[in-house]
Specification:
With 297 residues, the protein is of the alpha/beta class. Helix content is 43%, strand content 16%. The protein has helices at 2-22, 24-53, 59-67, 70-74, 103-110, 127-135, 146-162, 187-195, 241-261; strands spanning 76-81, 92-96, 115-120, 139-141, 166-169, 199-204, 211-212, 217-218, 221-227, 279-281, 287-289. Helix 1 crosses helix 2 and helix 2 runs antiparallel to helix 3. The radius of gyration is 21 Å and the shape is globular. Bound molecules: Palmitoyl-CoA and [(2R)-2-oxidanyl-3-phosphonooxy-propyl] (Z)-octadec-9-enoate. Residues 39, 42-43, 46, 63, 66, 98, 104, 117-120, 129, 132-133, 138, 141, 143, 146, 149-150, 153-154, 169-171, 173, 185-188, 190-191, 241-242 line the site of Palmitoyl-CoA. Converts 1-acyl-sn-glycerol-3-phosphate (lysophosphatidic acid or LPA) into 1,2-diacyl-sn-glycerol-3-phosphate (phosphatidic acid or PA) by incorporating an acyl moiety at the sn-2 position of the glycerol backbone. Pathway: Phospholipid metabolism; CDP-diacylglycerol biosynthesis; CDP-diacylglycerol from sn-glycerol 3-phosphate: step 2/3. This is 1-acyl-sn-glycerol-3-phosphate acyltransferase.
Length: 297
């Protein structure tokens, strides 16, 4: 009886190990659960320290430091190209494609100082995770209430200039693992135009090789983050937003396709970008290059 019990116990111990080793779906769920538990645990541990400082963007540093070890735990290599573009003293808006929660791992590799993401308000209700996000100055929007979301974005346009902040937005508005990008929401572009600050597009290469929530795949792997040159919005008005949105999306989709078809990551140092670096749109509707000397750190 005792031996049978022992065998049962051993099997109970070994079974998860075997499942983890040989069942891809179980492996996937374990890794995703660990990711969420890690975030929850870190938020719980760090929120009291962040609370001492109160709600402030400096707490983003704590949040980022807590997420950074995850890439080592998952065996994920992240390559960042073009990070130097972000060395601007002035405020700006970052727009980035959004494939999965794993984007957090890439985001913390490249996010500049004094930068806050815009997030769906549902995150706010995730216990200590919401608390940590709020304490770090993350801006919440209700995607179901466009009017309210627009108000928040308009206030943000004033805040980023007043407090010299950067804002990180996922303009697809939701996670997307398709072969291209979803149509872009216009909030990020209204924000940049209203604040008259530049936009930096960031493209994260596809995770297909190592991660797919549909196929329940999560293995070690590599991805690349490409920071594209800035796109000026000075002189643009709200009527230019639809075209600006489409131009930026097309640029990002082109880079994403390039990254998808070149898994060896053998990209040219500078990809052609429309509009080009430091371009502004003149009254004639044409994008003009301008001198950006002295704007970088
Ligand atoms: C210590 C450890 C802790 C760990 C802690 C870990 C967690 C750490 C998390 C950090 C990371 C967060 C990551 C979160 C990731 C997301 O939560 S993604 C989801 C949230 N993000 C978004 O939704 C993207 C931003 N959304 C937008 O920009 C959308 O435009 C809005 C404002 C929500 C409106 O949405 P919509 O109505 O569906 O779409 P849209 O067609 O764009 O707009 C409708 C109309 O309003 C106009 N409009 C839009 N915005 C404006 C505006 N600002 N002014 C004037 N008109 C506007 C549009 O132009 C359009 O009008 P027309 O041009 O058609 O005439
Ligand atoms: C008292 C309640 C306690 C609840 C505790 C919940 C614990 C949850 C723990 C960890 C959550 C980790 C969240 C990481 C968030 C990463 C950002 C993200 O990817 O958000 C999704 C959002 O972009 C788009 O959402 P949808 O694709 O539209 O959906």
């Amino acid at each position: 009886m005792d031996v049978a019990l022992l065998h049962g116990l051993l099997l109970l111990l070994i079974l998860p190990v075997l499942l983890y080793r040989y069942c891809a779906t179980f492996h996937y769920f374990c890794k995703v659960t660990f990711f969420n538990l890690w975030v929850l645990a870190m938020a719980t541990l760090l929120s009291p320290f962040a609370a001492i400082r109160g709600r402030c963007v400096e707490n983003m540093k704590l949040l980022c430091a807590a997420i950074r070890p995850l890439k080592h735990l998952y065996g994920i290599k992240i390559e960042v190209l073009g990070a130097e573009h972000l060395n601007l003293k002035e405020p700006y808006v970052i727009v980035c494609n959004h494939q999965a929660s794993l984007d957090l791992m890439g985001m913390v590799e490249v996010i500049p100082k004094r930068c806050v993401p815009i997030a769906k308000k549902e995150l706010l209700y995730m216990g200590t995770v919401g608390w940590a996000c709020w304490l770090s100055g993350i801006i919440f929007i209700d995607r179901q209430r466009t009017g309210d979301a627009i108000d928040v974005i308009s206030q943000t346009a004033e805040t980023i200039r007043r407090e010299n902040l950067r804002v990180w937005i996922f303009p697809e508005g939701t996670r997307n693992q398709s072969r291209s990008m979803l149509p872009f929401k216009r909030g990020a572009f209204h924000l940049a135009v209203q604040a008259q600050v530049p936009i930096f597009p960031i493209v994260i290469s596809p995770y297909w090789d190592f991660f797919s929530s549909k196929e329940k795949k999560f293995t070690p792997g590599t991805f690349t983050i490409r920071v594209l040159p800035r796109i000026e919005t000075r002189g643009l008005s709200p009527k230019d937003v639809p075209e600006l949105t489409e131009t930026v999306r097309k640029t990002m989709v082109d880079v994403f396709s390039e990254m998808s078809s070149n898994p060896c990551r053998d990209w040219p140092a500078e990809l052609p970008l429309l509009p080009s670096t430091g371009a502004t749109k003149g009254t004639d509707g044409v994008w003009h290059d301008e001198d950006t000397t002295g704007t970088s750190d």
